Amino acid sequence: MADQDDSEKTEEPTHRKLEEAHKKGDLVKSQEVSTWFVMIGGATAIALMAPSTASSLMGSLTVFLAQPETIPMDAEHLRRIWLNVGSSAFMSMIGPLAVLVGAALVGHLIQHAPVFTAENMKPKLSKISPKEGLQRLFGPKSLMNLAKGILKLTIVGSVSVLIIWPERDRLALMMTWEIAQLLPLVQMLALKMFAGVIAVMTVVAALDYLFERMQWMKKQRMSIQEVKDEYKQMEGDPTVKAKLRQIRAERGRKRMMAAVPTATVIITNPTHYAVALKYEQGMGAPVVVAKGVDAVAFRIREVGQEHEVPIIENPPLARALHATVDIDQEIQPEHYKAVAEVIGYVMRLKAKIGGRGRR
């Protein structure tokens, strides 16, 4: 069943899927990249700090080698000696250790930003299942890691042997050398080994990171159904969205129709377009309170007739206003003159009708 599920995951992961994986602490991580940075840190520590560290340790340990007979053997003196030696050794090693720890942190941080999550701390039955444990120990991933480890040891070991082998004659004589002669040779050989191993590990780390990223991306793949479900979660169900748009449009039409009786004039084309304008004393410019085409235009005219709103036929102006002005917005300056003529005509018509009524 798991194989079937994996075979169905043919789609590349979405941005949201990758973000969720990051939040859960599921990240691309190459151990070889971290090892490469630690080796760089080790080489740096040897190159910059080895002489001073060795001198400090040598000064602390000289008494044990040069004058062991002068060391008091009572408990108090031995405690003080070991305390001094321990503190000197710690102070001598704190610099190289700090470099190594810093390199290890950089090796992790350069691959991904820190993520704080309790996901891996949650109790899971799979963690105590013997079957799951055996699959983790002898599964494809474990066998792949074992193969990579053996290959890496083989390559690194071969490079180390190739570097050290030309120095085999000097290595045989090292037992007869003084410490002052020995330390520079050890430092030189160590740096040569680090340089060769780092050169090889650069290629190994780069290939391993690419491999781990490919495996991680493959693991994050989604099925078509998962992509659809995520789209519904993010964008909403298309059916529900369409229904909501329909409801909002219906409510908008009702509010618009409720504003038609307050209009000063309705300009039509005469059958396909209708735009209702409102203008009162003190307004900067007429405002469109309703507009529509075909059935909506017919309804605007119908409501206007019911409430005795003047209806003026002006096809070019009706089409222009419908195309350029939204509801509850003032008309554009280029339409001022034409609209002013219409509203002026309506005002004069109302004044004439009012005058007849008074007579």
UniProtKB/TrEMBL annotation:
Transmembrane domains' residue ranges: 33-61, 81-106, 146-165, 185-211
Composition bias, Basic and acidic residues: 10-24
Presence of keyword Transport: yes
Membrane topology according to the record: Multi-pass membrane protein
GO biological process, one term: protein secretion
Localization of this protein: Cell membrane
Region of interest (Disordered), residue spans: 1-24
Gene3D superfamilies assigned to the protein according to its UniProt record, in alphabetical order: 6.10.250.2080, secretion proteins EscU
Keywords (A to Z) from UniProt: Bacterial flagellum biogenesis, Bacterial flagellum protein export, Cell membrane, Cell projection, Cilium, Flagellum, Membrane, Protein transport, Transmembrane, Transmembrane helix, Transport
Keyword Protein transport: yes
Pfam family membership, one: Bac_export_2
GO cellular component term of the entry, any: plasma membrane
Similarity-based family: Belongs to the type III secretion exporter family.
Function noted in UniProt: Required for formation of the rod structure in the basal body of the flagellar apparatus. Together with FliI and FliH, may constitute the export apparatus of flagellin.
The protein's name in its UniProt record: Flagellar biosynthetic protein FlhB
Native source organism of the sequence: Parvibaculum lavamentivorans (strain DS-1 / DSM 13023 / NCIMB 13966)
Encoding gene per record: flhB
